[in-house]
Structure formats: structure tokens, C-alpha cells
Write a structure and sequence with these properties.
Order of helices and strands: HEEEEHEHEHEHEEHEHEHEEH
CATH architecture: Alpha-Beta Barrel
Helix content: 25-40%
CATH topology: TIM Barrel
Oligomer: single chain
Strand order of the largest sheet: 12-11-10-7-6-5-1-13
CATH superfamily: Aldolase class I
CATH class: Alpha Beta
């Protein structure tokens, strides 16, 4: 049975809403491709950038399971094994296969996954059967007019959709997928990228909608202007604080996001073992993307 939010808050650094967690996680980069095109996203394979959407290389599920074993040996405080990219986790079968192997080899470790939600209605039951404890869904708008400014297209069931058509499909599936996952007992966190010129005043509507669908935790991530949204501004502290306060009327808000790489390992903001685990150096970089 998947863990509750209260249980996750004790052992999962991304589900703690109080003081910063001292537990660790290992991200397993097994998902290479994506099925949506977000205008702020710039996915890359390198050993330099420190941000989501980036990994040094793609692992096979078998390599990922062995990586968990090495990670726990390097940092016993690692309690979480997750897949957060560098692409979309449900666009290829590798994340699910990875979780099958991990569950068999490490039955007590917390498992978590990030997704854009496009295919979540199709896979929510399978994720529940795998015993996924925590699921993060990135929902940037529930208004198709706004979503179309953030995500240009989606590839869904063999067809490419653009503009408002793409936005409507994505929003519908995100909310339906959250409902289905929550009903199956999976604890759901929602991420929203805060874009001042597009969705800043819309955050309360997103929070209300995802809370109504069953999400338990909310994470507002400030945009760092890049790619096709380079024309937008970075939200300041006052705007971030305001939107967090508005969202908190509907569900708990997480405030300690570290914008982790898809191959991050160790304690966020503390002990980092990714260099020993993946044999690559990591330096801070002021960019953000999400697969």
C-alpha cells in the first residue's frame, strides 16, 4: 500500500512541508524522450547543468537497480528512489520496468515518479499495482488559453496536437490522471512553474483544481527565463510569497525545491553523492526545465 502524505513527510525530502528534510533520494535517469513541448524546457545530456531535464547519460532499468544499491551504500540516509526524467517517465516503458526491479530488490524503499500527466489516466492503475508511493504531476494551467502559451504541442496516441487542442487534451488528462492516481491510494504532489507574464494570477485556480482532483501537496517553482520563454521575467520573492499564500488556501505548499537533476543523488542541499555514483562533476546552474 502506498504511503500517506504524513508518512512521506518523515522520509521523503520533497514531501516535507516543515523544516528541511535530512533524508536523501536517488534519481534514476531512465526516461529519454518526451511527448509534450513546453516552451521553458531545454532537455540535455551533460555533466554540467544542475537542473531537472538533465542527466549525464541514460541508464537501462537493470543499471538503475544496481545504481540504487550503490547509492544506499554511499549514503545510508537515502530513503527514496525516483524517476524524474530526463524526459517524460510515461512516454517510454523504462520507468515502470525500473520500478518493478526496485520493488523486488528493495521492498522498503520509497518509490516516486514525476510526470507531465498526459498519459497518467492510462497508467495510474499500473503505478498503483507497482506500489508507487509518491507521484508529482506538473500542471502549469487549467485554462487552455494560458496552457497553450506554455506548452506548444502534445503527441498523444499517435497524433500530434498543437495550440488550444493540445492544451485541452493535456489539462483534461492531467486532472483525470490525478483523480485516478489519488483514488488508487497514491500521494500526489503538483508542481507549477510560476511565469509572471502568463500564469501568476492563475495559480489559485490551479491549486483549487488539483486539490479537488485529489492532490495533497503543491510546489510553486519560479521560472528562470530561457528557451521560448526567454522573453518572460523571473518572479520576485514578493510574487512567489503571494502565490504560495494564495495556493495554501487549497492544499499544503512545499517550499524547499532544489531543482534537482534527473540523476541527482544524496541529500538535497546537503550531502551529494552523484559525483561518486555517476562519475561526473556537478556545478550550480541558473536554469530550469521539466521533461
Amino acid at each position: 500500500m502506498s504511503k500517506t502524505l504524513d508518512a512521506l513527510a518523515l522520509s521523503h525530502p520533497c514531501f516535507s512541508t516543515g523544516s528541511k528534510s535530512h533524508k536523501g533520494r536517488v534519481h534514476l535517469p531512465v526516461s529519454p524522450g518526451c511527448n509534450i513541448q513546453c516552451h521553458f524546457c531545454d532537455r540535455r545530456l551533460n555533466d554540467i547543468d544542475r537542473r531537472p531535464g538533465v542527466a549525464a547519460a541514460i541508464l537501462t532499468p537493470q543499471e538503475a537497480a544496481e545504481t540504487v544499491r550503490k547509492a544506499v551504500a554511499l549514503c545510508p540516509d537515502i530513503t527514496v528512489a525516483g524517476v524524474a526524467g530526463p524526459g517524460e517517465t510515461l512516454a517510454t516503458p523504462y520507468a515502470l520496468e525500473t520500478f518493478r526491479l526496485i520493488r523486488a530488490a528493495f521492498p522498503d524503499i520509497i518509490t516516486c515518479m514525476s510526470t507531465n500527466g498526459l498519459l497518467l489516466p492510462d497508467f495510474a492503475d499500473a503505478l498503483a499495482e507497482l506500489g508507487i508511493d509518491a507521484l508529482t504531476v506538473t500542471v502549469n494551467a487549467v485554462d487552455p488559453a494560458l496552457q497553450a502559451q506554455i506548452c506548444g504541442s502534445v503527441s498523444y496516441h499517435g497524433r500530434r496536437y498543437e495550440g488550444r487542442d493540445a492544451a485541452e487534451i493535456l489539462i483534461r488528462n492531467q486532472l483525470a490522471g490525478i483523480r485516478r492516481a489519488a483514488a488508487a491510494g497514491i500521494t500526489v504532489k503538483v508542481n507549477t512553474v510560476l511565469i509572471p507574464e502568463i500564469n501568476a494570477d492563475h495559480v489559485p485556480e490551479v491549486a483549487k483544481a488539483v486539490s479537488g482532483a485529489g492532490a495533497k501537496l503543491y510546489n510553486i517553482i519560479p521560472l528562470i527565463p530561457q528557451h521560448r520563454l526567454a522573453w518572460c521575467s523571473a518572479p520576485g520573492c514578493a510574487l512567489i510569497s503571494r502565490t504560495r499564500a494564495e495556493a495554501e488556501h487549497y492544499l499544503k505548499v512545499f517550499r524547499h525545491c532544489q531543482r534537482c537533476r534527473a540523476d541527482a543523488a544524496g541529500i538535497p542541499g546537503g550531502k551529494d553523492v552523484s559525483g561518486e555514483l555517476y562519475s561526473h562533476p556537478v556545478r550550480p546552474e541558473n536554469t530550469f526545465s521539466h521533461g
